[in-house]
Write a structure and sequence with these properties.
Length: 321
């Protein structure tokens, strides 16, 4: 196989402070990999300007004029990191695309290894953080707790993998079949199921500028991940309803014993508490049952592809499949 065309996809939101350095480093990296024969014709850098309000787009235009391998895509307004990234992944050409943040927090030195894994046959190469030294205790604690919570809810994620990854053309085409608008890309790429591998790296500090993911956005993104990938919270209501119903049954027996056998009940006590608990249980249970159907509707409306073919034997897939 001739050396592949590799695209680097970089979502940018108000990144004027880092862009000159990012471009310099990425251009140098591409030149080095091209010299080594690792990547071929058509390899390029694709900046996706996510509706920045600063000079980001002007810089992208200037860099594109100065370097033929720098290209830009501009969104009509700010749509958030996940949407900007998806736009780049669905728009940029190339045999494989690698998504990187603009702030150089992800170690670029593992990109050649990602490409080598791709050439060796992997469709997805996940960048995984080895250490989180540069993160605050709070960030590390909440982030790792989150991966564990998702695992407990049976959501398949790669531990400590965010959005630094390589996707082959075939994986990108499959990704395009997911029509959902509430994006949680790191969950979606796990659903693709193609052969993948991991490269580890150390995460650095942001090169310049401030994080574009304040706590508020981070929490909403975490919640997005749960609600886009799990119906466990709905199922929890059913379980809760069952438990309360059972408990109220026990309580009813006790209340009846007090009233009919021990004859020690205030007038109206049993007839008040028994229906109260019982109705509470029935209501939760009913909500849970409705929740089960809502969960089905939710899954159906996503219209996710039901399968991806990895390979066939004895014939080739035509365009008319
Ligand atoms: N980003 C974006 N749109 C947004 C917010 C962020 O395209 O609305 C980009 C940002 O420019 C950066 C990447 O997403 O390239 C990750 O953001 P950031 O580094 O601020 O997040 P953190 O590393 O702090 O989690
Ligand atoms: Mg960052």
């Amino acid at each position: 196989m001739t050396a592949p065309a590799i695209g680097l996809v970089i979502p940018c939101y108000n990144e004027e402070e880092v862009l000159p350095e990012t471009t310099a480093r990425l251009v140098a990296l591409l030149a080095r990999m091209r010299a080594e024969g690792l990547i071929g014709e058509g390899s390029a850098i694709y900046y996706v300007d996510d509706g920045s309000r600063d000079r980001t787009w002007a810089l992208i235009q200037a860099h594109a004029a100065a370097h033929p391998e720098v290209r830009g895509i501009r969104l009509s307004r700010n749509r958030g990191h996940q949407n900007a990234l998806l736009c780049g992944l669905l728009t940029a050409p190339g045999d494989a695309l690698i998504s990187v943040d603009a702030d150089l927090q992800d170690d670029l030195e593992v990109i050649p290894q990602m490409v080598r894994n791709f050439v060796a046959g992997d469709d997805v190469v996940y960048g995984v953080r080895k250490r989180r030294d540069t993160d605050t205790f709070f960030k590390r604690f909440t982030a790792e707790g989150y991966y564990r919570l998702m695992a407990a809810m049976k959501v398949d994620l790669v531990f400590n993998h965010a959005d630094y990854r390589l996707l082959s053309r075939r994986a990108l085409e499959s990704l395009a079949d997911y029509r959902e608008v509430n994006l949680f890309l790191r969950g979606l790429v796990r659903l693709l199921g193609y052969p993948g591998s991991i490269v580890e790296y150390d995460r650095a500090e942001r090169f310049a500028g401030e994080s574009k993911y304040p706590l508020r956005k981070m929490l909403s993104f975490a919640w997005q991940g749960i609600t886009s990938f799990s119906t466990a919270p709905l199922r929890l209501i059913t379980t809760l309803g069952l438990l309360v119903s059972l408990a109220s049954l026990g309580l009813a027996l006790w209340a009846l014993t007090v009233k009919l056998i021990i004859h020690d009940a205030e007038l109206g006590w049993a007839s008040t508490v028994v229906p109260m608990y019982f109705l509470g249980g029935v209501q939760l249970l009913s909500l849970g049952v409705i929740g089960e159907y809502v969960a089905k509707i939710y899954l159906e409306t996503k219209g996710r592809p039901r399968f991806h073919v990895d390979r066939v034997e004895g014939f080739t897939l035509g365009d008319d499949r």
